[in-house]
Amino acid sequence: MENPTEFRLEGDGIDLGTLPKVSLHDHLDGGLRPQTVLELADEIGLDVPADDAESLAAWFAEQSDSGSLVEYLKTFDLTTAVMQTREGLSRVAREFVQDLAADGVIYGEVRWAPEQHLAGGLSLDEVVDAVQAGLDEGADDVRAQGRRIRTGQLITAMRHADRGLEIAELAVRHRDRGVVGFDIAGAEDGFLPSRHRTAFDYLATQFFPVTVHAGEAAGLESIRSALIDGRALRLGHGVRLAEDLIIDRQDDENTYVTLGPIAQWVRDREIALELSPSSNLQTGAISAWGDELIDHPFDLLYQLGFRVTVNTDNRLQSSTSLTRELALLSEVFGYSLDDLEVFQLNAAAAAFLPIDDRDELVEQIEDGFSEA
């Protein structure tokens, strides 16, 4: 992966790596360091497809660039395999925070599925505690370097499994110990959020915030279910919401669009879209529009006033960073520093934090961008 500080805003020469950022969609098991995978695998006698960190990073990137979410998800068999002990979970979480901070992130929500980390004999509560210990240690490391970062866990249930309510109860049980929200993830097509309606009903009674993976491998029906059954405050990816946009006509300067009912609802209620440009290309989420970043409906959604946010999804699989994603978008769509600030302010407004804390994030972002 490139050093995030190597990216500069074209024309201005601004170091994008130093800008304050908010990360809302970043998977713990998709953000491991290749060297850590090698070392943890060696400790448990697990075979890996490469002998050195550089080669392993290349393997992850190649395997993930298939155009299929199902194939993309298979790479997680390796990362989750080395995250089955308290020590492994804590180490990965600690390094995750260190890497976020190195990328300029001041607040990051870390999503992961505890039910996938029980093979070593730990309980659901124990794995959540292990990850939180690592997150806290990472924040202490960052603080010792004279910087600060805050994180929150997004506890995720696997949408193809039947543990939704159990995982929802787990999330609420840890709401005062680092957990800030709930999510469902995994193979989206064929597994509507309505499958976990009981869990979402419970979370609503607990006033517990929800984001739902929807609009990535499946379309408007999945998004509709996320909004109705899941009461989603944010959409994980949500890129296929663009299927509900009807382009009436175009001229040299403008595109005239009619919003369908789902898109209208999402825009009017400022439900954040957790867009992940590189990942969306890799998984084929934007295949209806093309296979290059210029084809991504990100800019159309932005110009129409949707609350778009920029995310990495899985830094290891996509060989990326939040800084890199911003640089790619700027290069392709000609975004200015002001645009990049809007994306961070959108993310801060959508964070699963009390409003006073969100206001503090906004202040940090505005100060950081004004000094750039």
**Percentage of residues assigned to helices:** 40-55%
In DSSP terms (H or I, runs of 4 or more residues), the helix count works out at: 15
The coarse overall form would be globular
The fold-level CATH name is TIM Barrel
Count of individual beta strands = 12
Within the largest sheet, what's the order of strands? 3-4-5-6
Name of the CATH class:
Alpha Beta
Supply the helix-strand structural class.
alpha/beta
Domains, number: 1
Distance between the termini: 24 Å
H and E order: EEEHHHHHEHEHEHEHEEEHEHHEHHH
**Percentage beta strand:** 15-25%
Radius of gyration: 19 Å
Quaternary state reads single chain
List the helices and strands and how they pair.
Layout: E1 8-9, E2 14-15, E3 21-27, H1 34-44, H2 53-64, H3 69-73, H4 76-81, H5 86-102, E4 105-112, H6 124-144, E5 150-158, H7 164-173, E6 179-185, H8 197-205, E7 211-214, H9 220-228, E8 234-237, E9 245-250, E10 255-259, H10 261-268, E11 272-275, H11 277-282, H12 298-303, E12 308-310, H13 322-333, H14 337-350, H15 355-370
Parallel strand pairs: 3-4, 4-5, 5-6, 7-8, 8-11, 11-12
Antiparallel strand pairs: 1-2, 9-10
Helix pairs in contact: 1-2, 5-6, 7-8, 14-15
Please, could you describe this protein's structure?
Keywords: Hydrolase, Metal-binding, Nucleotide metabolism, Zinc. GO terms for molecular function: adenosine deaminase activity; metal ion binding. Its EC number is 3.5.4.4. By secondary structure, the chain is α/β, with parallel strands linked by helices. The protein has a single domain (4-366), classed as Metal-dependent hydrolases (TIM Barrel), CATH 3.20.20.140. Helix content is 44%, strand content 16%. The protein has 15 helices and twelve strands.
